[in-house]
Write a structure and sequence with these properties.
Layout lengths: L8 H10 L2 H11 L7 H14 L6 H20 L6 H12 L1 H10 L3 H24 L4
């Protein structure tokens, strides 16, 4: 099942633009010399802009979801002994709470609410990354 967009252009273009925040996280991780973990926001940036340019139920959606979830899991593991691990875990929890809320709004056909909630997921997720990358990561 692919082809039919899941949102209107004004909605998915909003999320597409917000997806560029992960590019900043990638650059910041490189700047802080966290080269391996920089692959996470770098890949999330690529898969997100690839998906949100025209969101549908195609392979692009599943690649994005798998990459994002894998990156989150990898960072959770890497953050265990990081300098700002407690703050990272707290803000990550808050950030991830936006995901089911966005699905709820989408299922209720409240598409702008879902769009804004997904944007908040991207923005708070980026803040979470910046917190992690700001300190040492073992």
């Amino acid at each position: 099942m692919s082809g039919k967009c899941i949102l209107n252009p004004s909605q998915y273009n909003t999320i597409w633009r917000v997806s560029f925040i992960q590019l900043f996280c990638f650059i910041y991780a490189l700047h802080r010399q966290h080269y391996i973990i920089a692959i996470c926001p770098g890949g999330v940036f690529i898969t997100s802009i690839n998906y949100w340019i025209k969101p549908d139920y195609s392979w692009r959606r599943y690649i994005d979801m798998v990459y994002v979830k894998s990156s989150i899991l990898y960072q959770i593991i890497r953050a265990y002994n990081a300098e700002y691990c407690k703050m990272y875990y707290m803000t990550l929890f808050i950030s991830l709470c936006f995901y089911p809320v966005g699905i709820y709004y989408y299922n209720k056909k409240m598409y702008w609410h879902s769009t804004y909630t997904h944007c908040l997921l991207h923005i708070t997720g980026a803040m979470t990354n910046i917190i992690l990358y700001s300190g040492y990561i073992r």
